[in-house]
Design brief:
Rossmann fold, 6-stranded mixed beta sheet, 4-stranded antiparallel beta sheet, 7 helices, transport
Length: 281
Amino acid sequence: MYSLDARKPRADETTSAGVGADGPDIAYSARDVSKVFYAPDRSVTALDGVSLDVEAGSFTCIVGPSGCGKSTLLRILGGLEQATIGQVTAPERKSAVPVSAFVFQEHGVFPWFTVLENVAFGLRMAGFSREERNATARTWLEYVGLSEFANSYPHQLSGGMKQRTAIARAFATGSPCLLMDEPLGALDAQTRRLMQEQLIELWERERKTVVLVTHAIEEALLLGDRIILMSARPGQIKEDIKVPFDHPRNIDIESTPEFADMKHNIWESLRDEVQKSVVFS
């Protein structure tokens, strides 16, 4: 099982989809993945021939215009959708702890559970004792600044607090991989800033494999080590960009010329794709 205090797997339980003799561990691997959605009157190709390797312990951001298949790709990597064509390899599950934990834009907290019960839910499903899961949940509530709301219910929380609850739950599971679909997209600008800083801190502490879908170029540059730029539908990988900023990282990098240049270049690369999505969506 995973160590409850550090929430990291023991050395003999590290999961990986592939380990190259001279290369990094690969958590997720997609090869020539296409996805077609069928309806009675037409079919829509969401993804077309996508190939991608995600290194274990990396923070990868997927950016692209609306409707380009970003969320579909994330769900295929996590096993929530099946590819129509192509092959996907994901880490092997070796314990009761799920390999992938998800965080969605709508945060998905259970209204009938307290904040503590929500954060402990994944551990409950994995068979941890009440004492173990509550201790771990309280640790993560402290990390995200919600300790005093442990016994509150979601309707008593702001949107940002609900999303912090969802993120704490994902980290608390001990899953080695986090798949996040616009997790901060519904938040106001100030709360989003705080959550971005918190995500950086949590990832730098845990070094889980994170794949995050976002529309925001600034967010991708601030959070990610790598940015996958996708074309308009049908989604293909247009560029694969390494983010050069060192860790530990904070929002001060946004004031640097390097950040501004990268943001401009990425937007120039995406501009035509965004225009296509507006015209043809």
